[in-house]
Write a structure and sequence with these properties.
This protein is mainly α and 283 residues long. The chain has a single domain, classed as ABC transporter involved in vitamin B12 uptake, BtuC (Orthogonal Bundle). 81% of the residues lie in helices and 0% in strands. The protein is built from eleven helices and no strands. The chain is globular, with a radius of gyration of 21 Å. The N and C termini lie far apart (71 Å).
Length: 283
């Protein structure tokens, strides 16, 4: 793969994968720990409506998609905080409506000739340099926000009621980090696409959570795992001429199943080791 780095699009893909890994590792850990995977999926699919709006009205892709994703994030977060019992229903509705609006507006867009598959399943090899700058900026914002609000995030993630009693601005922290999730999703769409993005957000943090005793360590391990999955998937896709986004996700899924099997084996061995010896009746 070294010779492939002679091409600018491969260097851009490599940088995009590394920044996407940092974004997914950190905000994905927040999503997994707080059980917000369905909400993140809702934001991702609602953002498709922003893609349709951008092409229909001829506005920049990031402007339309970011606007819709942030609006969906605010609405969904408000529902989660105020009506938890019905949150899944509202999120599911916004999920479907966003996708439907995006598809209809793309059908109605004059002179529409965009490759829809690149947004649904990703096209990391086509990531422009401008998106990489945006990813770098968002990565810096996420790292700084996590550093300044780490104790609050920790309190919210494990006991939000206790956090409220301690004076932690729970709602503000939720809105801030869900907004970062929305922005991160929009920027990572080019890497793995809307359909597969939730896997990259959740698989590395889920694996990391099992082997880490602190949220900070979980974020670091999840970022490193995500980098490994992105680089491995990109290399395999290059060698065998495969779709890069789907290959990255399959690599991550393979690691997920390996970790599951390893856990089962370790639990079985521990159980066998703890079993008391069979007593023998001397008579």
């Amino acid at each position: 793969m070294i010779e492939a780095l002679e091409f600018e699009f491969m260097r851009n893909a490599l940088m995009a994968g590394l920044f996407a890994s940092l974004i997914c590792g950190m905000i994905g850990s927040f999503v997994v720990v707080n059980r917000l995977v369905f909400l993140a999926g809702g934001i991702a699919h609602s953002a498709f409506g922003g893609i349709g709006i951008a092409f229909f009205f001829g506005i920049p892709y990031l402007v339309g998609t970011l606007g819709v994703a942030l609006a969906a994030a605010i609405i969904m977060t408000g529902v989660v905080l105020t009506r938890k019992s019905r949150a899944d229903t509202f999120i599911g509705i916004l999920w479907a409506v966003g996708m439907a609006i995006g598809i209809i507006l793309m059908d109605l867009s004059p002179g529409y000739n965009v490759n829809l598959m690149s947004y649904l399943f990703g096209s990391i090899l086509a990531v422009p340099k401008s998106d990489i700058y945006w990813m770098a900026g968002l990565s810096a914002v996420i790292v700084l926000s996590t550093y300044f609000f780490y104790r609050d995030i920790l309190a919210i993630s494990y006991d939000d009621e206790f956090a409220r009693l301690r004076g932690v601005p729970v709602n503000l922290i939720y809105f801030l980090f869900i907004a970062l999730v929305a922005v991160g999703i929009v920027l990572i769409i080019r890497v793995v696409g809307l359909i597969l993005i939730i896997a990259l957000l959740t698989i590395p943090p889920y694996i990391a959570e099992k082997y880490c005793r602190s949220l900070a360590r979980m974020m670091i391990v999840a970022t490193l795992l995500s980098m490994a999955f992105n680089l491995s998937g990109l290399w395999i896709a290059y060698c065998y001429d495969l779709t890069s986004g789907a290959t990255i996700i399959l690599v991550a899924a393979g690691a997920f199943f390996i970790s599951m099997v390893a856990d089962m084996v370790l639990k079985k061995l521990k159980k066998q080791g703890k079993e008391p010896p069979v007593s023998v009746n001397p008579t």
